[in-house]
Specification:
This protein is of the alpha/beta class. The protein is built from 15 helices and 8 strands. The strands form 2 sheets. The protein has a 6-stranded parallel beta sheet with strand order 1-8-5-4-2-3, covered by helices on one side. Helix 7 runs parallel beside helix 9 and helix 11 runs antiparallel to helix 13. The structure holds 5,6-dihydroxy-NADP and zinc ion (ZN).
Length: 384
């Protein structure tokens, strides 16, 4: 196992009716900016619950944060927050709203001219406005991690930042807020969380059996509860289990002391930037191809996954690896999520700019840093 430090200060407030707790979580003397997306929180009652809980608190609002949040939108919110002398940001929505609010929190305090530098040049974040969240879409883990992913349409970029200053002070997770999700978003969330686990697990063995088994338990839970939610979308326990599994998939716990490989996400982000494909759907297309391409490197772990998560019995490793790939694709397809480029009516050739973009940034992906733009193109070929 590698050396590590683990620190996660996010207070999780989980369960039915948890939004009420806002009144105790938010400092009454602060001026709060409530930020949300295209209006789902107004339709499903989340907005009303927040307003009710924050009675007596000075409140301003910013709406219209789009899926795959845009830099220009975030910068409008930065302006408003400065004008209104906001001292606490409250995000209500899915990963896009949470990510936008994390970036806004850092951008308000950014001493440089252009906060985009945080994303494009890794400019240092040394403070941020404190923020909290009310999560309505289990998927990204943004509610309990340091990451944010922001897009810039003008340049076709989608880039990530990470800073401990943007950990939410608290995140409220009420599984009942997820009943209103369209089936497509439920499926996307399960796939995204599943792939997050994989990016921290599907590498090589470092004798970290606890991290492996944590990861496998999240995967098995997502498979089981994923089937359940499709059959019985109004079951509270199922919704609750999915929500907690998605948070645990990317709050840093399963990543401690082990190698990681974020190749699938890095390629996926480029496909979203190019074609606007939902984040999770890019992952479902790319990951099986990454495994096929890297099967020699990831072989032992792929076979372990096939045996432990899918109960594959064969003693032959090559057969187990094939089963790992085919069972995963079948699971995604069963959630009506595409598993190859042709499902999105795309060819590898059309995706070449994705490989070129990564090439321009001189990336070396994979747990051994061996995946460059050339290998990315080979992976896209395999995802045909
Ligand atoms: O905008 P509103 O009206 O709220 O509608 C949203 C949006 O249209 C809707 N929605 C959310 N909760 C709902 C709901 N509709 C009905 N009922 C509810 N309860 O769902 C749509 C999609 O929302 P979005 O926030 O975009 O989805 P998701 O949570 O999947 O977030 C995706 C973004 O997160 C980034 C992705 O790249 C993408 O930009 N990621 C963030 C990560 C992180 N911070 O750690 C890691 C991930 O790998 C990912 O990259
Ligand atoms: Zn993701």
């Amino acid at each position: 196992m590698f050396n590590f430090q683990y620190y996660n200060p996010v207070r999780i407030v989980f369960g039915k009716g948890a939004i009420k707790e806002l009144s105790a979580l938010v400092d009454k003397s602060s001026k709060v900016l409530l930020l949300y997306g295209g209006g789902s929180i107004k339709k499903n009652g989340v907005y009303d619950q927040i307003i009710e809980a924050l009675q007596g608190v000075r409140l301003a609002e910013f709406s219209g944060i789009e899926p795959n949040p845009q830099y220009s939108t975030c910068m409008q919110a930065v302006e408003l927050a400065k004008q209104e002398r906001i001292d606490f940001l409250l995000a209500a929505g899915g990963g896009s709203v949470l990510d936008a609010v994390k970036f806004i929190a850092a951008a308000i305090k950014f001493p440089g001219k252009e906060p985009w530098d945080i994303l494009s040049k890794g400019a240092k974040v040394s403070s941020a406005v404190p923020l909290g969240s009310v999560l309505t879409l289990p998927a990204t883990g943004s509610e309990m991690n340091t990451n944010a992913v922001i897009s810039r349409q003008e340049t076709g970029q989608k880039l990530a930042m990470s800073s401990r200053y943007v950990y939410p002070v608290f995140s409220i997770l009420d599984p009942e807020t997820t009943y209103s999700l369209p089936e497509r978003q439920v499926a996307n969330g399960i796939v995204d969380a599943f792939v997050h686990v994989m990016e921290q697990y599907m590498t090589y063995d470092v004798n970290a059996p606890l991290q492996d088994r944590f990861a496998e338990s999240i995967l098995m839970t997502l498979v089981e509860q994923g089937h359940n939610v499709m059959k019985n979308p109004n079951d509270y326990e199922t919704r609750a289990n999915i929500m907690w599994a998605a948070t645990m998939a990317l709050n840093g716990l399963i990543a401690v002391g082990v190698p990681q490989d974020w190749t699938t996400h890095m390629i996926g982000h480029e496909l979203t930037a190019l074609f606007g494909i939902d984040h999770a759907r890019t992952l479902a297309i790319v990951m099986p191809a990454v495994w096929q391409h890297q099967r020699a490197v990831k072989g032992p772990k792929l076979a372990q996954y096939a045996r432990r998560v899918w109960g594959v019995q064969t003693k032959n490793d090559e057969q187990a690896i094939d089963a790992a790939i085919s069972k995963t694709k079948k699971f995604f397809a069963g959630l009506n999520v595409p598993v190859r480029l042709s499902d999105e009516k795309l060819t590898p050739e059309q995706c070449r700019p994705a490989a070129e973009q990564l090439g321009k940034r001189n990336v070396s992906l994979g747990e051994h840093g061996a995946i460059t733009a050339k290998e990315v193109m080979e992976i896209l070929e395999l995802a045909r």
